[in-house]
Amino acid sequence: MTTILTFLFFTALVGFLTWRFTRKDDHDSASGYFLAGRSLTWFFVAGSLLLTNLSTEQLVGLNGGGYSHGMQVMAWEVWSSIAIVLMALIFLPRYLKGGVRTVSEFLTSRYSKGVGIMVSVLLLLSLLTNLLPFVLYSGAIFMRDVFNVSAIFGGDETKALWVTVIALGVVGSIYAIFGGLKAVAVSDTLNGIGLFVGGLAIPILGLVMLGNLMGDGSGFMGGLSFLTQNKPELLNPVALDESANIPFSTLFTGMLFITTYYWCTNQAIVQRTFGSKSLAEGQKGVLFAAFLKLLGPLYLVLPGIIAWHLFSKELGADGDSAYGKLAMAVLPTWALGFFAAVIFGAILSSFNSGLNSATTLFSIDLYKGVFNKDATEPQMVKTGKTFGIVIGILAILVAPLIDKAEGGLFDLMKNLAALYNIPLLAVVVMGIFTKRVPAVAAMVAIIFGFCFYACFGLGLFGTFPKNSLFGHEMHWLHIAGINFIVLIVLMFIIGKIAPRKEAYEQAHSGDVDVTPWKFAKISGVIILILIAIMYFAMSKIG
């Protein structure tokens, strides 16, 4: 009962404060609803970025990876900081200079309307199949286990999963559809504070339990000592074996490209930065988020490793249950309710951010861009809300089906993401760094890249085995990296054969001040140095 009461109290508190902060905001204009009126300061940009990214597919999925494969999976977090630095220094200045509201708008300006529409459709498909259902599914697993929802249905976990997914989907849709981006950003930041405190408490208390139960009885220090003396290779992030879950070599191929797509071109993420008050505020927020991502392994991988030492005999190969098991074991009843509320907020954050991005893409790029070119801003907002309801319902229907899929949750999500990510990233990168590559090159790259990974990465066409390039088996991240290079070369060749008649020049929209933050470059360099130090130090420990 205490767990439920503390859960309800913190959840209601965040909802009330979000309403207080946003009740007088403009929710009728497109800029106000979709981009928070371009009023977000660095603190809200950073908070919304982190909470949009951090949800139960990270907490459950990545800790499940830590349980099964050790610290090598921290690459998904730490390598993201490199991509975020690229966002701050290269991508964000171009986006804000053009005053775009969606990535597709940038591509429409750079290439053609046809390219923009195609990318909008792919981004919507990616949100529907690769983000929203995974957020609901992973969140439902955690909430179902914490509140023992299965007991209500006589132990039927499938029914409990469906009910929990529906509940999360409905509440998340209310935030996104009726609050707009400002409400999403504010609730993200408030939940982020709670998640930071609660997220760090889990590994600390886990180490205390590990030291007391399996170490020398000296609590926290005993737990640290136990980790470094018992199967220390779990702490090593550098895996030289190419058959490992994340071989070190993949960090410089598919890992780099997939994280760059996610942080630099994924609408659900970059929309937070489009709402920045200025380029300087946006860069401060983005780089602060990059720094905080370096702490990710402490609460997104280490708990999984601790859970392996404590519960591997009980859980067996079920790594996706490791985080929830550890949280319920180390937290007192009242704190479990608080933490469940924070996790609930993180679930809503990722879900409503994705949903808000879906409504933005549809309203701006498809509804006004294709179906009703004379649509007023209130009409765009209203249509976006209606579309958000439809997407929310579809995500709820798809989410429980993930339960039937094979493999770890996080690996499944990232493997599927490469189908969309790599072609879209190639098109954006060539759009930024070249001036004469034509629209037809972007069209060809999207279609070819999609088919390339579907064939060699996922084995959908049956001609070649999964993760096999012309019969040669290799890690799926390498295949994703090869796909990117092939697309860049293909677009470059087309650009040489049939270049644009006029070189592309981006105009300044004047929507925001694009004067860069004077410490942006040095901050980026410091973050890159810290990444190198982390890998070197942890490889020595492991």
Let me know the average pLDDT: 84
Q: Which H/E pattern describes the elements?
A: HHHHHHHHHHHHHHHHHHHEEHH
The major sheet is characterized as: 2 strands, antiparallel
How many helices?
21
How many β-strands, per DSSP?
A: 2
Give the helix level as a range of percent.
over 70%
Kindly list the characteristics that best describe this protein.
mainly alpha, 1% strand, globular, 21 helices, Sodium/glucose cotransporter, 542 residues
Provide a descriptive summary of the structure in words.
With 542 residues, the chain is an all-alpha fold. The protein has one domain: Sodium/glucose cotransporter, CATH 1.20.1730.10. Helices cover 73% and strands 1% of the residues. It has 21 helices and two strands. The protein has a two-stranded antiparallel sheet.
What's this model, at a glance?
With 542 residues, the chain is mainly α. The chain has helices spanning 2-22, 30-35, 42-53, 56-69, 75-98, 103-110, 113-146, 157-213, 220-229, 254-264, 267-274, 279-293, 296-300, 302-315, 322-330, 333-371, 377-398, 409-433, 439-456, 476-497, 520-541; strands at 468-469, 472-473. Helices cover 73% and strands 1% of the residues.
